[in-house]
UniProtKB/TrEMBL annotation:
One Gene Ontology MF term: molybdate ion binding
Residues spanning the membrane: none
The organism's place on the tree of life at top rank: Bacteria
Family matches, as SUPFAM superfamilies: Periplasmic binding protein-like II
Protein's recorded name: Molybdate ABC transporter substrate-binding protein
InterPro entries documented for this protein: ModA/WtpA
Signal peptide: none
GO biological process: molybdate ion transport
Length: 208
């Protein structure tokens, strides 16, 4: 997730991958990049899959289990899924090739399949049996757990954390719009905003 937030016509950039805003900072195009939240990678599954943290790698490698991911290079969620596959290879040699071949890139890419309006892609692809599990973030668009799916944490030897970066674009702008952009950036680091992020499954970095 990389987004430009319009704050009274000033631009604040937030990204699920620190590398994107940090690269712009290195190029001198934006202000310094800071971490404003952290996330983790989890795997969601239908209850009938029987997925647990202990059997997670066995289930992912099972030829009968269909895996869904976001699209790497187009969506940071996909990049983290491929990072998971690389980690799995160090635990079980050959896993990376198997998992990359199995993974269906269903979200974020130019060729991603259409999802009915108003429906969650993960829920839709699970309910239609297109996939059995989906690798993504532990955070959610909702503050209450989804009873139709099981969300499982990765085992310690496969765990992946995601730092969310934020910066302000150094574009020609008035003092008012520049101040607005920095006010938004400061708000995202405030206890109030950090509490909101926590309710949606993020790990806060600046909460009192």
């Amino acid at each position: 997730m990389t987004r430009f937030i319009n704050a009274f016509q000033a631009l604040t950039l937030v990204s699920a991958n620190m590398a994107h805003p940090q690269r712009l900072t290195t190029e001198g195009k934006v202000a310094p990049t800071v971490v404003f939240a952290r996330n983790r990678v989890c795997v969601q599954a239908r209850p009938d899959v029987g997925l647990t943290t202990d059997n997670l790698l066995d289930k992912l490698l099972d030829p009968n289990i269909k895996i869904g991911t976001s699209t790497p290079k187009a969506d940071p969620g996909g990049d983290y899924a491929w990072e998971l596959f690389a980690k799995a290879d160090s635990v079980r040699p050959g896993a990376k090739q198997i998992l990359e071949a199995k993974a269906q890139q269903l979200v974020g890419g130019a060729a991603a399949p259409q999802v009915p309006v108003g429906q969650s892609p993960v829920k839709y692809f699970m309910s239609t049996r297109r996939v059995d599990v989906f690798i993504g973030y532990c955070s959610s668009h909702e503050t209450t757990p989804d009873s139709t799916l099981v969300q499982v944490e990765l085992p310690a030897n496969l765990s992946i954390s995601a730092d969310y970066g934020m910066t302000v674009l150094e574009l020609p702008q008035t003092a008012a719009t520049r101040n607005a952009a920095y006010r938004l950036a400061l708000y995202l680091m405030s206890p109030e905003a950090q509490d909101v992020l926590t309710r949606y499954g993020f790990t806060p970095v600046a909460r009192q």
